[in-house]
Structure formats: C-alpha cells, structure tokens
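== Polypeptide entry ==
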Amino acid sequence: MDYGHDLTFGAFLTPDNRDPQGPVRLAQESEAAGLDLVTFQDHPYQPAFLDTWTLMSWVAASTERVTVSGNVLNVPLRPPAVLARAAASLDLLSGGRFALGIGAGGFWDAIAAMGGDRLTPGESVTALGEAIEIIRGIWDAGERAVLKVDGAHHRVAGAKRGPAPAHDIPIWVGAYKPRLQRLIARRADGWLPSLSYLRDGDLKTGNTIIDEAAGEAGRDPARIRRLLNIAGRISAVSDGPLHGPADQWAEELAALALDDGIGTFILASDDPEDLRTFGEEIAPAVREAVARERGTSGTLPAAARRERAVLARRRDGIDYERVPASLASRAVEPGDAAFGSLRHNYLRAGSPGLILRPANPGQIVDGLAYARTQDVPLGIRSGRHGISGRSTNDGGIVLDLGALDTVEVVDPATRRVRLGAGARWGQVARALAPRGWAISSGDYGGVGVGGLATTGGIGLLGRAYGLTVDHVVAAEVVTADGRILRASPEENPDLFWGLRGAGGNLGVVTWVEVEAMELGDVVFSQLTLDASDTSGLLQRWGSAVEAAPRELTSFLILGGARAGQPATAHLMSVYAGSDTDAAVRELERLAEAGPVLDHRGYLMPYAGVIQEGDAPYTGGGSPSVRSGLVTRLDAETADAYAALARSGASYFTQIRATGGAAHDLPPDATAYPHRHQNFLLSAMGAAQPALDTAWDALVAPHTDGLYLSLDTDTRPERLHDAFAANLDRLRRVKRAYDPANVFNGNFPIPPADH
C-alpha cells in the first residue's frame, strides 16, 4: 500500500557521551549528506548517554536545515505538559525543525529506578493517550480556555496554553502492539517501529490495524506517516536484505515504500561513510524509483488527501476539488490541524472556508484565478494585524502571504531593501539593525509589511522619516487578471502611484522595495502623566510635539480614571538619534504637559522598540475603530477628544504625531494625500453604532481626513475622507487594473465609469 507520502530520509544516532561532540558532528555530517532528519535514542536512565533533549537542542543550534527528533522520547520520565512547552520552544528556536517522536516506555525497572511509575502494558498505552491529549492541548494556544485533563496517569488542572510551535509538529509513536497502533490511528501523525524488531508480515498487519482504526475515527489513513528505523551494512557484496551495495538498498527501500507505505527511512548508524552514502546515493535513487512508479500508477499525494472529519466541514460556494495543484498541499480547511492558528486576525475573529498559502507569485496567480471562480468573499493577508480585519472572513477564501517573508538588500549604496509582503516589521528592523539602517513602520513589530507599506505607515520614526509609503521605490504586483507587474516611477507609474496609499484595492503586492534611513541607536521613552486635566494636557503635549525637531516622534494613549487614581496619559516617544542630551531636552518638554507619574528611558536600536511579536491570534473581540487627522490640538479639538474619552463609547484612545518629513511631499505625490496634518486621532470601541454616534458628534467636526488602517466605518463617504482630491484619479487607476472590483474586501474603491 503506497500512501503517497513525500519520501524523507534520516539518521538514527547514538547519544554516546564519551565524546560529547561526536553525535553533534554526525548530525552535521548527516545534514551535509542531504538527509532530512536526525534522531536520537532516549534512555534517560542510561548514564553512558547524553540527555537526549539537551543534545537535540544543541544539534538544532548547530545545524541549519535538518529536522531533529527523539527516537523515541521516554514519556514516563518526561511530564507531558513540560514536554509540550519544551517541544514548542525548540520548534520556535529552530524555525520549525522539530518532530516529536514519543514512546510509552518499556524498560520499567530502569524507569522505576529513576522515579517513574511502573505501568502495565495496558496502563502505558492509556498514559500515552493522556500525554498526547495534554501535549496537543498545550500547543493549542489559540484556544482561550485553560487546559484541564483528568487522566488516570497524567493530569493538568487549569494549565495555561502555549506557546504555539512554529509549525504543526508531527507526533510519531514507536509501537508494535495493536492497542498502541490503534491509538496512533486516532491521535498521532506517524507510526515509528524498527525493522529489526518486526517479523515477516508485521508491517502489513500493523498498517491494516492503523488503516481500519483510522477509518473508524474518520481519518484518512494516508494522513498517518509510516516511518521505519532500518539497519544493515552498505558493502560491495550482497549478503542478504539491506546488506549489500547502494543499488540493492535503493531497490529494497523502494519496495518498502511502494508495497508497505513507508514514507520515512531512518538509518541506524554512527558511521559517517554510511550516512554519506545513504544521503547522497541511496536516498536519491529511492526517490527516483518511487516517483517513476507513482507516475505510472497515478498515486495521489498524501498531502492532497482530506479526512472525513475535514470533508464534513467544507463550506458552500467553494469547489474544493478544483484547488490548484500548486496550492493544494499547503491549503488549510476548517478541521485541519493548522486551521485554528490561521483563521483569526489580531483583532478580528474569522472562519474562512479555505486558506491558500502561496509561496511565490505564480502560485498567487493560480490562487487568484481559482478564487475568482468561487462564489465567496476573498481576503488578502500579509501579517494578520490589520485593524479592519478584512484579511479574514466567514466562509470565504483567504490568500495568506506569510510565506513571502524575505528581507534582502538590493542596493547598499542607496540602502534599498526588498521586503516580502508577508514579512513582519519586527523582522525587518532586526535584519537592518546590524547595518545601522531603519524603516519607520508603525508601533508594533508583528504588523505585516504588505498592508502597512501600501496604506501609509505612521510610525515612531515618522517625523524624521516620513510615511513608509514615501520611501517605497518599487513593487511587484499580481493583478486581478493574473499579470505579474513591476511598478515603479518608470514602469506602470499610475499603478505605482496608487499602490502608495490604496494598494489593497489594486492587486496582490508580493514585495516592495524601500529605501531605509541611516540610524544607529535611538532614545526610547515611556512616560506616564496625570491626565486629570485631559484637554489641557493634550494641548500642551501637542504644542510640544509641533515645536520639537523632527527627530522626536511621540504617540499618546489616554487611560481612564480608576478608583482612587487619576486618568493617565501614556506617552511612547522615540528620538531618532543617540544624542541623549538633545533627547532629554525634548522629552522634558513633553513631560511639562502634565504631572509625571512614571518615566523610563532607554538607549537602544530601533529593533528594540519595534520588537518581533507573533502571538497566536484569537480574534481579539472584533472592535470598532474610528480615526481622523487634525492639524492642531487646539482647545476645541482637545475638548472634543477628551469628551469622547470620557463618553464610554471608546475604551482605547490614541493620538499619533505625524507631520515633519511627511509634509515634504505634495498631496498628489502618492495616493495617500494628507500632507499638512500633524496628528492622527483614533478611538476603539465595542460597538460601531455607539462609536460612530459619539465620534460623529464630538470629534468628526474637527477632523480633516482619516487613516483607513485605523478605521472600520465602511460608509461610502469615508473614501472621500481618506483620499480627498486623489479619489477620482484612484478610481481611474482602479478601472485600469481591477475593473471587475475583485479586490473589494477592504474599503473598496469603485472603478471609474469611463
């Protein structure tokens, strides 16, 4: 039985501690030989061995590509909740290069000697099932409820979930008996026996048990990988199975793949030459032979198959059978293991019917062409942080660009950097910091490049740098009709103009090229002021910001009064330079806006301010948001905004200083037109009608334009507020590149009539 798994090959190494670096060197040689996987025995009671978990961590840090795993980890001596956090941590640190191979235990005298409970075979299977439930529950960081498992052998009573691993960690179980094989069929992702412990027919029998139990559980048996530890001798002369030359090994392993469904072969050897031959000669030959046979038989790849439980959750309006082949293996549907971690945005709950995850522009073309034939909404997602939340939906299709996350220098002389649309700004800041460069990019490192770099970018370096869009010098765009275009001042200049302010309306941006600024350390200040006199504080702070040099940018958040405590204003400010004396002078002027309650200042790289953050997103309550731009925080405007903060319609109010370098361009230089205002006002509330009523009555009369990235009011007049005199031109650009209004999920601009 061939399950269609992509073939992978690994090493099964002894964690001998006589030469502690010996297993590490073998792991590195395995990677150099092209192997995919490095595994280690786990016998915590064996003093001649290194601790396997410590060794795996060291190996993960000493390699770049291979996946590491225990083969198999001894669960009776590794508490499952702790094991789950350790596994997720190693997966995050290694960039998704960890697999969890576990076993129920076997050497019970040694386990008991180390303090573990002695279990019967039946009890050990029950205990392993409880352990898997706990491990998966800890990894499910998207679930808000605490984890409770009251097992006979393993218990957690309200454990907090998380962290989520970097990828969907597979759980492989070493097993030889039917009860454990049936557990694998219900709860695990792979069966991992050793060939030397199997008798003739055991592979077929085990596969049959797993397949039948998987079917009863509503799972496609092909979703369970079949792995096999193998041993033998690679030699010039044949002397029985797996004892002979490389071509004999290749023939025998290909038969195991095609007849017994083995998708992963793991060679038990500490001989560097055997590992090299296995990776460089045998593995390629097996892959070639199996691919040739599958091409004739038409075997469906395992990744393209869906379990019955997933099929039952498919949504109306989506033809799942016609998902493009280029996207099928990474597509995520409701019921898939990865769905829970991908369905929501930072502040928006969602339940899309299909999430497509393209890895290159060609796959985006395929995904768009497919999505246009489906009768459901379409969302385009870069970082999942957009306040409006339109990059998720209910029952529709989402094109998730997270795989397009590269950061590369194009021209050091001009500090020109190409950023993938799926990269996060914290990642960008970290990559640029060693060069002494920076790009102003909002106030949070978890925001995606694609959304912010095509809408505006009012950030903590904004008065020194300007808007992010002001420094975009080129972009690659997939248009609604499937063209892949480069946009720049010389190529498709009308598209280039429109992308810088209304990019989500015109196509799927795959990358942008941005010119960074030279910047070493910055002074970052967190200042808390008594805001009892809220209006007066806003006026004084606003005046200080306007009078400050461009190096200073400040954001202000109002906090409501609590019992026995005054209302507060929290200032986040960045002085774009390392001149601490100059920075302190400007920060002292800000501090004069109100009585100081707390102040902390730091000299640090900008990457320390815009830190990477990508916690699992759980929807965040789906708030309503309004925004407006003003030139001055005069008495009338400050009074109105203070009244809004007291009204109860908003639970979060923020003012961002803009201006400075953002004023250096004329209003028609980019689609974003607001080039004279100094402050962006925003408010977040629980209900759109209540917030709209309060905002329209109190704040809107004082505003001059809005910022769409911080607004959820979808009334048509908001487009005029957002784009002002540029709207008519934008409608003509929209007609040229998206006349059918395919990109209509996020403040859609209607194409011009003619």
The two ends are 60 Å apart (CA to CA). The chain has four domains: 8-231, 306-400, 407-518+728-737, 521-723. The CA atoms of residues 671 and 729 lie 9 Å apart. Residues 407-518+728-737 form a domain with the Uridine Diphospho-n-acetylenolpyruvylglucosamine Reductase; domain 3 fold (CATH 3.30.465.10).
